[in-house]
Design brief:
single chain, three-stranded antiparallel beta sheet, mainly alpha, two-stranded antiparallel sheet, elongated
Amino acid sequence: MYYSFQKSLLPYLKCFILFIILSSSFLVSAQYLDKSNDTIVSRRLNSIQNTIELPYSSILLDLIKERIYPNEFQISESISKFFHFKTLFESEAAKYNMPSEIAYLPYAISMMDNRYSGKFGTAGVWGLTATVAARYGLIVTSFVDERLSVEKSTKAAFKYLNSLFELYGDWWSTIIAFANSPAGYNAAITRLNEPEYTIWELYQKSRLPFKDIVPNYIFTVYLGNFFQTYDIVLKPYKLPDFSWIHVYNDVNILDLTDKTAISEELFLQLNPVFVSTKIPGDSLFKVFLPETAKQKFYEWEDSLYFWGISIREVELLADSLEADDDEIINSDSIDPNESQVDLEKVAPKPEKKAPEVNKEQRIVYVVKSGDVLGRIADKHGVSVSNLKQWNNLKNDIIHPGQKIIIYKNANYKSSSTKSSASKNTEYVYYIVKKGDSLWKIASQYNGVSDADIRELNKIGNSIHPGQVLKIKVKK
């Protein structure tokens, strides 16, 4: 009987649940209608003090419904970032006597995504092509793309906007040509074949690849003025305290983030211009790191430079560790598929033992660009620890022009292969494979321990596939 009673109530329960769902939908719709309809949005647009015309279309209402309500968190994140950079955009606009609302253009193009990549190779918050970027002084290579820097791309973008406005004398023509190129905009106007037209007619009738810039820009200006109406809260956009360093030799980004204990995401936030796994060793490019990571970088600097060298660059490695500056290494015999490379195949044969010196020699070495303590020590047959002791250095940091004192005498036994010890020892380079461990690698060589490999390469227990390890083995 009790079961029958429950069964008889089931249809009523279903109706009640349906009523609750419909009521909730009605309340959400009512809230939406209360905040946005054609009359309200049109009136708000007209209230904005602006130089660039913002004509209303019902398309704008659709954008509000599609973009704000389902994506409040994303909108909050992106517009918070926009307001962080808005002062920069407005100050650049003021330099060229442009209306301040042109500052909303990068948000309309990319929603302030540094890593934005659009059609036809456009990139960065301003969506610049590589050709335009190069024209206005930005560097775009397989390693570095300065379009991804908000600060650098902003300067180039406003130079480009200024030249377009001088060409068209109209802000909407400038905006559309900026997003689609002057050639694309001119072709669209020709195909339209109408003496007079509105920007909404151009949007609806043209085949421009980036014609969405019309509704996107108007929506962005509207959102920037009325985001609080939609309960969107600005969040503090702040990066940790950071400063810059110079990288003088190639460095693998994964190695750097591992040894400095920062996330790859944070590194790319601070250094969006790097688009490869490697930071090129070029003093033109600054690398930004949090203050806590900066000191760790200097502690690992020599090792990071060593790990950043690929097997195809092993001749440079041998040059920096074993060979004199005027020696040329033949790398034709290197097989990139081999996991082990014998140093004898890629480096010069060890020199004969240097003549004995009866008394201590004192050398003053002037640091050149790209030098590191490890290279200086190996070249002169001394140790890094001695260099630090002789010059009262607390870490590995040196800079071009600095004078380094070096003492050489006949009794000093160098760890370099050029010393007399090279008669009984040799070095090989091993390329780490998937599944390798230091213990497994060491077990392949007689008299070599995993501790020996760690000490020689200045590393911990962590290794990764493709990493090059130097191993000292007995003949």
